[in-house]
């Protein structure tokens, strides 16, 4: 589908047809695209936990403020950020020339080591970019998605057995839409949100 159409058609969908599933093979194809998302130093600070079994989705829904879409969609995905993604650098840079490794690996280590806020920011940044790829990739296939932050992070972390180096960033529900979502809500005008040169600069108001 033309990218402009994907962007225009993507909506946060709450109503799913529980009878229509997305197969594992289809999901794999989507994730083959998702993992091409950008991340700083290519560290790929993301992990996805996909839940499709009915009993598990039911529990997942309970941990997500009871929101029905978590249970009714085809697959509920917890997008997680990895706080220690920088520790993968030796593996990621394994095939680059030794001179590059010698330069980049200490740089990455020093950039992240001991910096908890940065590790968290980066985990959320990278996971969020991947989440957006997931939503657009799904839209390209005619599937519906919904990003969600309405969940209890501790309950979700326990249920899905997150390890201490993982943080839950958002849930994305994925499936086939049942009822059409409400009309698209208010968007700030581009002229208000895009500024030239500084936050108090003139707004972008092209003809
Ligand atoms: C990080 C994030 C968290 C969200 N959490 C929820 C949620 O818990 N439940 C829900 O129904 N919608 C949730 N939404 C959907 C937003 O309400 C929706 O994106 C927004 O109203 C714009 O609508 P649109 O995506 O259809 O354009 C969330 C969206 C984002 C990006």
Question: What do these coordinates show?
Answer:
The protein is of the alpha+beta class and 207 residues long. It has helices spanning 3-9, 24-34, 54-63, 69-72, 89-92, 98-112, 116-140, 153-159, 190-193; strands at residues 46-51, 75-82, 144-148, 166-175. The chain has one domain: NADH Oxidase, CATH 3.40.109.10. The longest helix is centred in the middle third of the chain and has 25 residues, at 116-140. The chain binds flavin mononucleotide (FMN). Flavin mononucleotide is lined by residues 11-12, 14, 67, 146-150, 170, 181, 184-185.
Report the CATH C-level class. Alpha Beta
What is the CA-based Rg, rounded? 19 Å
What's the N-to-C terminus distance? 27 Å
How does the helix and strand content classify structurally?
A: alpha+beta
Number of helices: 9
Q: What is the overall pLDDT average?
A: 97
Shape: globular
Question: What ligands does this structure carry?
Answer: flavin mononucleotide
Topology:
Blueprint: H1 3-9, H2 24-34, E1 46-51, H3 54-63, H4 69-72, E2 75-82, H5 89-92, H6 98-112, H7 116-140, E3 144-148, H8 153-159, E4 166-175, H9 190-193
Antiparallel strand pairs: 1-2, 2-4, 3-4
Helix pairs in contact: 2-7
The structure holds flavin mononucleotide.
